[in-house]
Design goal:
160 residues, alpha/beta, six-stranded mixed β-sheet, two-stranded antiparallel sheet, 32% strand
Length: 160
C-alpha cells in the first residue's frame, strides 16, 4: 500500500501523520464540508473512511499520553529511530517535529491548512487534488461499492 505524509494545521496547532494515499481524497472530501478544526475534519473523514479517522485519533491519544510541550522525548526518540513511513501521528511541538512534519514520505506531502482554507500539494506523486470528485467509501480499510461525492467550496484553494 502506498503512503504519504499529511500535515493538518488548525487554530490550536499542527499535527502530522503518514497514511494511505487514498486519504488524500478522503481528507479533501472532508474539507468540502468546511471544517474549522482538526476534530471536525476527522469527524467528517469518518463518513468516508472510519479506519483512517480512528488511526489518527488513537495515534494522537497515545502521543498525548507520552508527550507534552515541556517534555516530548518520546516523539523525538521515535523520529530519530523509526523510518519516516513508520512514524505514528504526532503534534508539532518544536523545530525537530516541524522538520519531520514537512518530510515527504512515499508518494509525498500534502498540507491541509484548515483556518486558511488551503490544500497545499508540496510533493504529490499520487494524484492531483481535484476541486470536485468522487471516491469509494471504505469499511474496515477496504473499498466498498458505495461512492461519495464532494465539491470544495470556492473559499478553499488548492495550491500546486
Amino acid at each position: 500500500m502506498d503512503v504519504m505524509r499529511f500535515k493538518v494545521i488548525d487554530p490550536t496547532g499542527t499535527i502530522s501523520f503518514v497514511g494511505p494515499c487514498h486519504g488524500l481524497k478522503v481528507l479533501t472530501a472532508a474539507c468540502a464540508k468546511n471544517p474549522t478544526t482538526l476534530a471536525e475534519l476527522l469527524e467528517y473523514t469518518r463518513a468516508y473512511d472510519a479506519q483512517l479517522s480512528t488511526y489518527v485519533l488513537n495515534g494522537l491519544a497515545v502521543f498525548d499520553e507520552h508527550n507534552t510541550t515541556e517534555g516530548h522525548d518520546a516523539i523525538l526518540g521515535t523520529l530519530e529511530s523509526a523510518p519516516p513511513a513508520e512514524t505514528p501521528p504526532f503534534r508539532v511541538l518544536d523545530a525537530v517535529t516541524e522538520e519531520a512534519s514537512t518530510e515527504p514520505v512515499g508518494a509525498g506531502l500534502v498540507i491541509f491548512n484548515v483556518p486558511a482554507r488551503r490544500i497545499i500539494q508540496v510533493q504529490n506523486a499520487y494524484a492531483s487534488v481535484e476541486r470536485q470528485g468522487r471516491g469509494r467509501i471504505r469499511e474496515n480499510g477496504e473499498p466498498t461499492s458505495k461512492l461519495y461525492r464532494y465539491a470544495l467550496p470556492k473559499e478553499w484553494r488548492v495550491l500546486p
